[in-house]
Write a structure and sequence with these properties.
40% of the residues lie in helices and 18% in strands. By secondary structure, the protein is an alpha/beta fold. The strands form four sheets. It has a seven-stranded parallel β-sheet with strand order 3-2-1-4-5-7-11, with helices on both faces. A two-stranded parallel sheet has the order 6-13. Strand 2, helix 2 and strand 3 form a beta-alpha-beta unit. This is NAD dependent epimerase/dehydratase family protein.
Length: 287
């Protein structure tokens, strides 16, 4: 039996889970919370508490997915289980690390691809660059079949703009030249499954849709789908945002996704935010 050990079994890993369960895989997912462990169990996942002894799970797993993000003290998975992973990772069929397109930094709206130099402009991006390097170093020492997936802005069920538009709290924040790339969580699951089926040791993939777009356009389209008035437009300098939200506007780039199509044969289910938002609204309405 194939066994997926998923470190930091969150939003993306939970989208992949039904795909693997349909193939009769076992999925072991880590969490730090007993309450979340029960929720994972209800979804067919074997829960494991991060920080406890996972030696049996690490030894049994045929595949490993790392979704946990790094902190100031480095990658949490490597910090907690690095020595054990070093003993076992080389024998796995597939290892996937979920990173971010934030590693590319700001390109003033220009296109980037997987070969673009990494010049992060935020602390989050810099931490991701270090984490990627740490996982690549481990893979080099162990001959582990590591794959790195750089994810654009993630949206999907429970992570769409509709709630704020309905509540009247959405704003169309305008910063000239600002564009973001996005990816529907179901397409993330699709790409991961395709990579598992066609492993290519050491390969890096950008995960994003075909239509980088200004954020205000997404909010406007959500309002249109709901049949509600356009949310007010405010300039970036005038907008009230948290430091975290404001930091996302420090980078503008268009991310290419040719590699997932050409090498993995992926055909995006939601190639742009318009098809993605229509799907989310259909699901909300029980369609």
């Amino acid at each position: 039996m194939s066994v997926m050990l998923s470190f930091g079994h969150g939003y993306c890993a939970r989208a992949l889970t039904p795909v693997l369960l349909a193939r009769s895989w076992e999925v072991i997912g880590t969490t730090r919370s007993e309450e979340k462990a029960k929720a994972l169990e209800d979804e067919g996942v074997t829960p494991a508490i991060f920080g406890t002894d996972l030696s049996a799970a690490i030894a049994r797993a045929t595949h490993v997915l790392i979704s946990a993000g790094p902190g100031e003290d480095g990658d949490p998975v490597l910090n907690a289980y690095g020595e054990m992973l070093e003993r076992h990772l080389g024998a796995k069929d597939w290892v996937g690390y979920l990173s971010t397109t934030g590693v590319y930094g700001d390109h003033e709206g220009r296109w980037v691809d997987e070969d673009t130099p990494l010049t992060p402009s935020t602390q989050r991006g810099r931490l991701r660059v270090k984490a990627e390097a740490a996982w690549r170093d481990l893979a080099a020492r162990t001959s582990a079949p590591l794959h790195i997936f750089r994810l654009a802005g993630i949206y999907g069920p429970g992570r769409g703009p509709f709630a704020k538009v309905r509540a009247g709290t959405a704003r169309r924040i305008v910063k000239p030249g600002q564009v973001f790339s996005r990816i529907h969580v179901d397409d993330i699951a699709q790409v991961l499954a395709a990579s598992i089926d066609r492993p290519d040791r050491g390969r890096i993939y950008n995960l994003c849709d075909d239509d980088p777009a200004p954020p205000q356009d997404v909010i406007a389209h959500a309002a249109k789908l709901l049949g509600l008035p356009l949310p007010p437009q405010v300039t970036f300098d005038e907008a009230e945002m948290s430091p975290m939200a404001r930091s996302f506007y420090a980078e503008s780039k268009r991310v290419r996704n040719d590699r997932i199509k050409q090498e993995l044969g992926v055909r995006l289910r939601y190639p742009d935010y318009r098809t993605g938002l229509s799907d989310l609204l259909r699901r909300e309405r029980g369609g």
